[in-house]
């Protein structure tokens, strides 16, 4: 099948309206939330049903053309970056909620349903815990691809802890069901491997999710400290007291300043750190633990603990936290969002080391993060108009990851590897460990057509002997002439 | 490498003392906890270090001889059943606890460490939640292989929710690290796929586990009901009230009678059902919820709710529950332990259907189970001395699984597929879904040497084209002459 035949076949599958060939239309999809990488795809399709997705993937398989699946494009690691001579499969039309079964705590959705829509569908008694800051726009399909987290994942776990089943189109066009509505189906747990595989093993067309009862009570406070070290020690003390907050988030001085300018929550600009702690659960438990958290914050040096008096104030606390990324635009023309993980106990030392590195590079680094998980989101500020500053900022962002690795941590907590972190994978994994990943990839996508160039540090072809790879043909020769 | 060379090579690896060739010695290992399957292995090795395990597996790879890894052999699905002409790798000497890091809530152990020893190593402030009834003897390596559960998994999750990293010897003798001490490392989540793979993808030599703080308070009660239907409705009412008990276990009339004869807990023989409910968490939460659970049990018809007054009484409640399997020996010469899952809301109807089937077969079926998870453990009683009764009992056990599947459930909750449930896999999965499992298997064990004949319904060879398989050579021609 040549390029022209592929286009006609895709047109028959999705209809003329949902096949995009014009560069102007395609430019919408040139990047995801990670703006420093851009690539216009050769064409895009917007299938309307699972069956159309399957037919699009099968057509790409027959034409031997690579493809990338995309949800809302809000990802921050370039996981949905199109491939130059490939097809982009946009899933934003697959927005049906197929089943709501509250008796068994399950929801079945199509991949284009937004994260927030799942909680809305099961409100007011249930909710879907993983809550990326982008939850109003990001899709469940994208959440599954990246194993997305969020502020409440410290207590509640990540996407992988809530997906019980997937209907998946494999790269050869086969439709399979992995897991189901029940927890823990027999056979290999391929679910875990698919969740977080960043679109390289196939594309989910139906997703069974576990939802949980809304806790009886929620209590939220913000405590201000002189330093992130003090706040970090408060985090350790809270966790060591056996308290598992629903969320425990930290913002440093730079972030407080930036967010206050945007959200006007009355936060004291100039303080060294803010710690947002949310407790949820049974009323009685919340009250008892809330007293203890307040005491711990005071013991660790906070002289300013603010308790939300009503739902409006609680919403304001959260708005301030969730505004951190956009707010940074007020104090810096450009910034990189980094995503690294460190053991919780090393947080204070790692934050000091990041400050030292920022000084060495002459750049500002703001820190806002999921403190309970040790999941840092340093925002490396720079001005792209200043010659060489973007490159210096990117180098600094890489050095910060090295610090995370030296502390025994990881190069990504919840944003995924995508194109952005591939180069760091070899720092974290031995060659044999990467080869183990490649075995899985090759089992499901032997021809490397599904989201090529993501996750793995070097694109490789699957050989017949496991562990032996050749250069990927996309790198060796362009596919442009195929169209 | 011929059989003689393999024996000599293994002898050099583990030393003469830890190589078993004598049939008398080998008979110890002829079955696991599932006694109806027996097979003496050709030889057994007991390596003392991870490196020795790696060398044993590599030797088997070079000799192209199949092998089975075994922990304590307490599994109930025949997952550790030896292969006739294969090597049994017994991991019971790998009992070192390599690291205890309570600050970060992690423990690193060798596979032969028992489940209970992990909790002991982190006591009194922490514990390891997954708690199979066999926890005093069963090993963490076996728990990882079977993704073992236990009474507290309703609230706390299964083994897969606690393993953060594995060092694994792959079937070709390669040593790889999957995951690590941190949660959510980048790259494919192979951890999920390895946990529960029943020894068919490799053998774990080092296991990082998450441990959690011991809850501040624990309250335990047993409520007696006239029928399992009443007790089942109490379970639904408790869960719908938003209460997540640490454990919620049901025993039917037959089980009450059998366990009372053994444990002497003063349980009222003749009552239709006993519900054991354990709440744990913050003191204040426990007290509040305990009052509610007591009220719900009374509302659903229980006129006899007993609250444990001290740790000794709580231990007695649990001893009674955990004695259910051995106690059944007092009322029946033989029994099969079945393991199936149903959606919690269907529990009352499924229990009635099981009673009807038992009557149809003229056999007694006792029910004791993790009610919160809908994870049934029907004990099908029979007398092997009566001609044909064992076969009828096995047929009935299969029919019970069909009932679980019709209710939208699963053929195993926590005991695994092993040899016992292979034949049922095709009832639950479509051919394409099973082929997806096989892709994973072939990616890591293309020659089918690791625990062959388990999990998958028909043994197959990995072809060069995914999805195309040939007959497994072990079935086609014996390997006996190789030795």
Automatic annotation (TrEMBL), chains A, B:
It holds the Pfam family FAD-oxidase_C. Keywords: FAD, Flavoprotein, Oxidoreductase. The keyword Flavoprotein applies. Transmembrane segments: none annotated. Signal peptide: none annotated. One of its GO terms (molecular function) is oxidoreductase activity. PROSITE patterns: FAD_PCMH (PS51387). This is Glycolate oxidase.
């Amino acid at each position: 099948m040549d390029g022209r035949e592929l286009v006609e076949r895709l047109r028959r599958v999705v209809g003329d309206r949902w096949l995009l060939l014009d560069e102007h239309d395609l430019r919408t999809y040139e990047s995801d939330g990670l703006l420093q990488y851009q690539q216009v795809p050769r064409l895009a399709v917007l299938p309307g049903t699972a069956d159309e997705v399957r037919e699009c993937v099968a057509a790409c398989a027959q034409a031997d053309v690579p493809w990338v699946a995309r949800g809302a494009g809000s990802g921050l690691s370039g996981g949905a970056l199109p491939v130059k001579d490939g097809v982009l499969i946009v899933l934003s039309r697959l927005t049906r909620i197929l089943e709501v079964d509250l008796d068994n705590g399950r929801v079945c959705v199509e991949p284009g349903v937004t994260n927030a829509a799942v909680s809305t569908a099961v409100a007011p008694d249930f909710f879907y815990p993983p809550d990326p800051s982008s939850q109003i726009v990001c899709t469940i399909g994208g959440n599954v691809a990246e194993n997305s987290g969020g502020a409440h994942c410290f207590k509640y776990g990540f996407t992988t802890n809530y997906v019980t089943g997937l209907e998946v189109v494999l790269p050869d066009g086969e439709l399979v069901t992995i897991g189901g509505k029940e927890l823990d189906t027999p056979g290999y747990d391929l679910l875990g491997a698919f969740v977080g595989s960043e679109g390289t093993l196939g594309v989910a067309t139906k997703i069974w999710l576990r939802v949980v009862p809304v806790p009886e009570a929620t209590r939220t406070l913000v405590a201000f400290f002189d330093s992130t070290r003090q706040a970090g020690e408060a985090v350790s003390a809270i966790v060591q007291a056996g308290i598992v907050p629903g969320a425990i988030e930290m913002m440093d001085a730079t972030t407080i300043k930036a967010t206050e300018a945007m959200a006007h929550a009355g936060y004291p600009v100039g303080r060294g750190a803010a710690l947002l702690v949310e407790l949820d659960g049974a009323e009685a438990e919340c009250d008892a633990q809330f007293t203890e958290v307040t005491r711990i914050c005071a013991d660790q040096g906070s002289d300013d603990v603010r308790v939300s008096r009503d739902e409006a104030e609680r919403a304001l606390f959260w708005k301030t936290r969730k505004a951190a990324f956009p707010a940074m635009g007020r104090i810096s023309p450009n910034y990189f969002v980094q995503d690294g993980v460190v053991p919780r106990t090393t947080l204070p030392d790692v934050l000091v080391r990041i400050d030292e590195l920022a000084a060495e590079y002459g750049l500002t680094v703001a820190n806002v993060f999921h403190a309970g998980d040790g999941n840092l989101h340093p925002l490396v500020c720079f001005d792209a108009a200043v010659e060489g500053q973007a490159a210096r900022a990117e180098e600094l962002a890489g050095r910060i990851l090295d610090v995370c690795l030296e502390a025994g941590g990881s190069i990504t907590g919840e944003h995924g590897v995508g194109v952005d972190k591939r180069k760091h994978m070899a720092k974290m994994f031995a060659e044999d460990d990467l080869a183990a990943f490649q075995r899985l990839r090759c089992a499901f996508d032997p021809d490397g057509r599904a989201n090529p160039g993501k996750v793995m540090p070097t694109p490789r072809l699957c050989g017949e002997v496991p562990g032996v790879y050749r250069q990927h043909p996309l790198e060796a020769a362009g596919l442009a002439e195929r169209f």
